[in-house]
Amino acid sequence: MNLHALKICYTVALTGSVTKAAEKLKISQPAITAQIKKFEKELDVPLFEPKGRGVALTSIGQKIMNPAKRLFALEGQIEAMAEEYRTHRGGKLRIAGTYLATSCLIPRWAAQFKCNHPEIEVQITTANTQDALEQLIHYAADIAICGGESESHSGEVEREELYRDEVWFVVAPGHKYANRHISFRLMMTEPFIMREEGSAIRERLFALCKTYMASPPEIALQFSGLNETIHAVASGYGASFISSLAASPYVNRGELARVHVDGLLPVNSIALCTRKHGTYEPYVKEFISMARRNPHGFGKGSP
């Protein structure tokens, strides 16, 4: 297959115009048109059809461009890796983590790692589970530390559980259910403040609703950050479903209160995620070993 012609077709599909593709690729319009016709003949399928002043993909063209998108995304990642190597000769460790991991675990690991390797640049990105795994498989991250037990990308990602903690229903201390024991169905009648779609714990809550055949709660407020969610609940509105690792300091200070749901004590898994069959630099392997040895992070006073 002529990959050069495929890239030309992909660029035309992205821009919707032979003229714009010619400008982007710095190739003449007749050359692009000729390449498209030759490639369509090679595949024996029509890839484009006229649309207004431009062109649009045919149905088979759309199907072909889906894997082409992944192919050229990979090409871009390879180019980025080479550029990164040229500009970060000492090395660069890129970690994608969920909000819980980046606020409670990764900072201590990263600080210890930098003490041992001051020459290595460490980049930490906070994302929900889905986005963190996307960064990992697309080579935008070397490691992902994710919550939940998602099967997403199971064919491409190796998951190793580092830590398990309880997940609590929490409300403000003055809430009518604060420190009480209630049923799961009753808990689901409260308005909830949650993270965005793609959050592992949010998905876990909706899965529990299916298991217990309860109507999902109203998501009254949605935040992209864990701290914002906690502070909104502490302000007195609604309830949330939060890892005890994040919630316990607020409960201990009396800023949040637990709601004990009868017969339910869910746990959250925090996993170290790497690419299956991936090859890693020695310093990446060292960070992974350090996380395995200290799954709770480093306690106060630890070296």
Short description:
By secondary structure, the protein is α/β, with parallel strands linked by helices. The protein has twelve helices and twelve strands. The C terminus is likely disordered.
Descriptive notes:
Strands 3, 4, 5, 6, 7, 10, 11 and 12 form an eight-stranded mixed β-sheet that branches. Strands 1-2 form a two-stranded antiparallel sheet. The chain is of the alpha/beta class. The chain is globular, with a radius of gyration of 25 Å. Helix 1 (3-15) crosses helix 2, helix 1 packs across helix 3 and helix 1 crosses helix 4. It starts with a helix and ends in a 10-residue tail after the last helix. Helix content is 45%, strand content 23%.
Largest sheet: 8 strands, mixed
- The overall pLDDT average reads 88
What structural class should be given to the helix and strand makeup?
A: alpha/beta
Low-confidence stretches: 298-303
- SSE order, as H and E? HHHEEHEHHEHEEEHEHEHEHEEH
The Rg value, from CA coordinates, equals 25 Å
Shape: globular
